[in-house]
Amino acid sequence: MLDPLDALLRGPERVAPRPEFEREVLARVRDDLHRSIVVVRSVPDDRVADDFVNAYDVIDEALEMLRGTGPEFDPFGMGFCLSNHAPMAVEAMCAMGRPDAVVAWVERYRVHLPDAPKPRDPISGSAWREALGNLGRAPDWVQFFTTELAEASWTDVLNRWVPRLAPAAFGGGTHGVLRTAHAARSLGHAETPQRHHELAEALGYWAACYETLPEAPGNAAHLFPAEALSRVEQLDLRDRANWVLFVQPIAKLSSLPSFGSVADLVDVESDPSAFLSELSESIAALLVSNVERVMPRALVHALTAGAATRLMLPYLSPEATATSLRYGWQVAAAFYAALVLEPAADDSPGPDENIEDLVDEAIACPDEHGIKVTEACLREYALNPKPVYLRAARDTTRRLVITGVPLT
User: Fold this and answer.
1) Residue ranges of the domains in the chain?
2) Cα(93)–Cα(59) distance, integer angstroms
3) 92, 206, 254, 345 — which has fewest CB within 10 A?
4) Cα–Cα distance list, 119 to 85, 144, 271 (Å)
5) What is the CA radius of gyration of the chain?
6) pLDDT tens figures, 119-148
7) Main-chain phi, psi angles of 72, to 5 degrees
8) What are phi and psi of 266, to 5 degrees?
């Protein structure tokens, strides 16, 4: 479904979609993947590994360019605020091996961002719960986490706060957890003052946007995501259509009693990597089948937020991992229950384009979600080489060219 705001912003000419994918043997796609920077960490070649680390060097420059910008902005002066995606998109471009595109992209995006407001009321260590969910206190939260990171290692801070904030994985339209996850992966490559500050910004935004989905005790089903998804009840079709903002149908989940126990459907104590692979593959198939009917700018969050734990996985304790998986799943299930109109695509063929082509298209996409969904799909494909990820990346990016919010 076309978002009315996007329709107003779109130019008078409709961009024709590119030719449809044709079936192609998976071997070619896998060959392209092995040449891609996305999987370089699994390649035991020191030179290639060094190239991967060097791809992240530009992040500190980009974060300096973004320093002092607010967590949200109103690019069109219409009272319609968007989350600041720049730090996330920058990290995603580096993960895809495209640091060369970062500075120019930030320069185009930066003009939309306002200055960050100043802290006004320090948050004390014993009264932090009272400040949760207050966006006006985002600067206070950033200051709070700056102190936290000065007094403990960033991994200790991450493991202390992910279990506290994970129940609000939907907060900020999922961008609190997403920004935190990208910041964590960046710090995993190198610790710098700029990356420490970005983690403080990310955690601060997550805390300031604290918002939970409906949850009620249920019987633990110990399922993996694909089977669990088949048991999630959806809203009535009328409630899944004709919305303007994706938060509107998701807000209606409070009137769907069965959704409260959704978080208890899944087994978060087993293999977290396999859990994330199955969840992301299931959502990628839904992206393919719904890309023409559901605004992709909304639905991509089911994949990016649902799989965000992957970015933090090397740094999380078992407790934090389980909690993060639980609520990442809950968010993905919420998008399924409230937005999805068509059943998942079966046996999606891979694209003609190689991975470098997909990355180029994502960076050229005027909507930043093209970068984020492509990186998430390639990240998951590297571990679970199913062509549905590549199809989801291509189809979603191309649909965003038509229906997305053009900022770059």
Assistant:
1) 4-35+214-403, 53-208
2) 10
3) 254
4) 21, 10, 41
5) 20
6) 999 998 889 999 999 999 999 999 999 999
7) -140, 165
8) -105, 155
